[in-house]
Amino acid sequence: MENIKAEFSLETVSDGVWNLIPVEVKRFEHKLIIRQPGEPVWSTFNLNILIKGDHYNLF
Fold this sequence. Notes:
Layout: E1 7-14, E2 17-23
Antiparallel strand pairs: 1-2
């Protein structure tokens, strides 16, 4: 089972050599809003990136 509090990524250093890099995972959830069928639903999230040079992926 996955543990999102201990996620890692592999970075290739050379052939057969890798660095194990810890990854911080955050979860964003939509607020439950009752709408009419077909009416669009959206949420707004603010993301502040404080450290330059790091890699960020949004899924």
